[in-house]
Amino acid sequence: MSIRARFIVLLFAIAVLFSACVNLEKAGQQFADDDFSLQAMFSENGRYIVVHSSGELSSRTKAGIEKAGGTIKESFPEIGVTVVTSDSPEFARLAGKTPGVSFVGPDLFVTLESPESGLLVEADIDDLISENGITDNDLYVAYQWDIKRVGGDAATWDIEKGDGAVVAVLDTGVYAAHPDIAPNYAYGKNFTDITVTLPEGWILWDGGGAQDYEGHGTHVAGTIAASIESGRIIGVAPEAGIANYKVMIAVLIPQGPGSYRATGIGYQSWIINGIVQAAEDGVDVMNLSLGGWLYMNEPGGAAAYVAYLRATQYARQKGVLVVSSSGNGGVDLSKVRPAFSVPSGTPAALSVNATGPDDSLAFYSNYGASETLVVAPGGDISNPPFSYCLSAYSPLNAWAPGAGWVWTIGTSMAAPKVSGVAALLYAQNPGISVSQVKNILAQTAEPLVKKGFDSKLGHGLVHAYRALTYQKK
Fold first, then answer.
1. Is residue 220 located within the same domain as residue 359?
2. pLDDT tens digits, residue range 174-198?
3. 238 phi/psi in degrees, rounded to 5
4. Of these residues, 75, 107, 212, 216, which one is catalytic?
5. How many domains is the chain partitioned into structurally?
């Protein structure tokens, strides 16, 4: 059966999957409320984020935390943040009075935001490889409109392919053996723990380690740096290194009797830890196609926000460009206070909104974060599945075990295109600063509005060829 025929056969399946996403994806403040209520399920988990005024915990502050009933689990002295466990319902209140402690709050879970479901391309990656071989780049040629739209083509790659640059993918992990990923896979680190306690009815799908059991991280990695040399797709920077920082685990969430939704979840502290470590490791670009809402009028909202703020700023100071998806709520992030989206809402993060094939803002895309320089294709539902974004997928996923490539939509698909273009710039210009990269991205974006800048579309669509051929005036 041809690939296109398989698409047609499976269209009914994607219609069902996507209708569920649309029901979850409500516009405006209501969406933020719904998303936060999911996080609130985990607020009484005995884990806390403690933000302190000094980097290393002073003996006095440490003693105060312990006196309040806390046990220190791990500390990030680079940003003055410590993760604490406690069974005491009074811990947050008592620890907040400890000398040297600035903020205390629950270490909440973050989930991948809908829409994230996609359409299966091939039934089984192992069978395809072993029985049929792989036709190099055939899916890129036929279907990767989004990569081509940002200048992912021969003209760009004749100038630069990204060799020497390293992009950290902070996500659900990366399937290292994928034929599109393997040539550029640098290393993997795991910041998660599969022994966490989940709500009743939730199912742990993750097998642990740095491996991707959800699929999301592999999709992101393929968008950034799928190799020209093997596999079926091509990433924006097809020779850039992929550094896998697993900060989320795969779970199944009940959606009704006998029905589940596969997604990724991760503690705020896992993500913050990954940000700090990736910065320490000296990567060039950090991609965070994830996020969540923090309410400043809720207990502990400020603690997690300040932790993200410090972590992303630390990465910025270490010379790392932090790229984050803006989120899929369809809301103006500047008008949902006291809610803040993290990490996209932190000043050091370059927040990326999504566009569809017609270059307009995608219906689901958030906008209005602290800094939106450029936008990138994330796909829409105007022509399913061909208006979606095609990339690699982990065959260990729960939705379609064995699947190696899928179509999906979301701001999660937009951010890695910006990360890929940035990787090309880092490879072309060793020693270039974050400010210089951001300036080039802004100056060379393809304008989408007449006035030059728009709160929804920034300076325009990120474009690899224009960025690599930029000549400062």
1. yes
2. 999 999 999 999 999 999 999 988 8
3. -75, 5
4. 216
5. 2
216 is catalytic: yes
d(CA 345, CA 121): 34
The one-letter code for the residue type at 238 is P
C-alpha pair distances (Å), 467 with each of 24, 421, 461: 37, 8, 11
pLDDT tens digits for 394-408?
Answer: 999 998 888 899 999
Tell me what pLDDT residue 299 has: 64
Which of 365, 391, 394, 412 does the annotation list as catalytic?
412
pLDDT reading at 467 higher than 90: yes
Domain containing residue 352: CATH number: 3.40.50.200
**Is there a catalytic annotation at residue 412?**
yes
126 is catalytic: no
For 17-113, list the strands marked E by DSSP. Answer: 47-52, 71-76, 81-85, 101-106, 109-111
* Measured distance CA(188)–CA(222) in Å, rounded: 15
Q: Is residue 40 part of a domain?
A: no
Report pLDDT for 214. 95
Which position among 35, 171, 206, 380 bears the catalytic label? 171
Q: How many residues are listed for the chain in this entry? A: 473
